[in-house]
Amino acid sequence: MEKNKVFFRVDGSSQVGLGHLVRCIALAQMLENDFKILFVCKEIPAITQNELKSLGFNLLIIHEETDFLYLLTSNDIVVLDHYGLDSDYQKNIKYRGCKLVCIDDLHDKTFYADLIINHAPGIMANSYQAQTYTQFALGLDYVLLRP
Q1: What phi and psi values does residue 56 have, to the nearest 5 degrees?
Q2: In 4-136, where does DSSP find H-type helix?
Q3: Exposed, middle or buried, 134 (CB in 10 Å: 0-12/13-18/19+)?
Q4: Displacement of CA 98 from its chain's centroid (Å)
Q5: What does the DSSP 8-state code read for residue 129?
Q6: What are the pLDDT digits (tens) for 48-96?
Q7: Per-residue pLDDT tens for 83-140?
Q8: Residues 2, 147, 119, 17: is their CA dihedral positive or negative?
Q9: Can you point out the beta strands (E) in 1-147?
Q10: Is pLDDT at 14 greater than 90 in this prediction?
């Protein structure tokens, strides 16, 4: 039986930092035995590309967001860790029937995620403008650390 896909839509660079990529790699390592992992990036340093390859993860470099959105099917899970992708982007993913996980530490927009992960201490679900179906993984128990 083929494993379901988990797409990580994340970017990293000297401008936006590498933290988003680092925590996505940590989550990918937690999930890799049960899912097919694919990283989708517009910006990613060569050293991180090499790390993904050495860990056995697939990488797709895109130029436009539509390049990514057209890949999605209703069986897919999308993990977003990106400050620049807004509520409409989330709705677009949900419209395609995907499950959506957002890794977030800003709680600065309306979320359409099935799950929001925020490891900061003291954050509560009511800090978010989210949907009734949204579940939360909040606090230090959900810190995304590599092995």
Answers
A1: 85, 15
A2: 19-31, 46-55, 65-69, 87-95
A3: middle
A4: 12
A5: B
A6: 999 999 999 999 999 999 999 999 999 999 999 999 999 999 999 999 9
A7: 999 999 999 999 999 999 999 999 999 999 999 999 999 999 999 999 999 999 999 9
A8: negative
A9: 5-10, 36-41, 58-61, 77-81, 99-103, 115-118, 135-138
A10: no
Phi, psi of 117 (to 5 degrees): -110, 125
Query: In this structure, which amino acid lies at residue 106?
Result: L
Q: CA 45, CA 36: separation in Å to the nearest integer? A: 22
Q: What angle do CA 11, 101, 54 make, to 5 degrees?
A: 45
* Closest among 144, 73, 69 to 102, alpha carbons compared: 144
Give the number of residues written for the chain.
Answer: 147
Confidence (pLDDT) at 96: 97
Cα maximum dimension of the chain: 41
On whether the CB atoms of residues 129 and 109 are closer than 8 A, the answer is: yes
**Residue holding tokens 């959506």?**
100
**Angle at the Cα of 56 (from 54 to 58), degrees rounded to 5?**
110
Other CB atoms closer than 10 Å to residue 43's CB: what's the count? 14
Structure token digits, residue 120: 């900061």
